[in-house]
Known about the structure:
With about 150 residues, the protein is mostly helical. The chain is about 90% helix and about 0% strand. The N and C termini lie far apart (about 40 Å).
Amino acid sequence: MGLTTATALAIHNFPEGLATFVAALEDPFSGAVLAIAIGAHNIPEGLCVALPIYYGTGSRWRGFFWGVVSGMAEPVAAILGWLVLATTLSLEVYAVLFGLVSGIMVMISLKELLPTAHRYDPEDAVVTYCAIVGMGVMALSLVLFKFST
């Protein structure tokens, strides 16, 4: 289970690394803020990888290792983005990259996260409310970010 989670999170982390790279190119401050936010949310992701491996093997180092490996997809994506796109960056390339990354994230949410949440909450006691609160938090953060720059 831990290795499956590590693989899924590595795939999930790849577009985040690419998004951070593109954001940092456009505005280093935005890139730094995004990197800090993504880094903070990687802590529970790393635990989701490390804990099943630790409990399955009894090895803290093995759990830690696979947690780190799953998180390394982000810097790898940023480096690959730089290698591939450093000479061809334009407004159109930015638009394509942001569109691809946001599309990937939206599809993961709609096709995987929400259906899984509803499977654990078949009466919909909390999922819809939490999704709405999450959207509100994101909207508020965008407004606050707009006023901070």
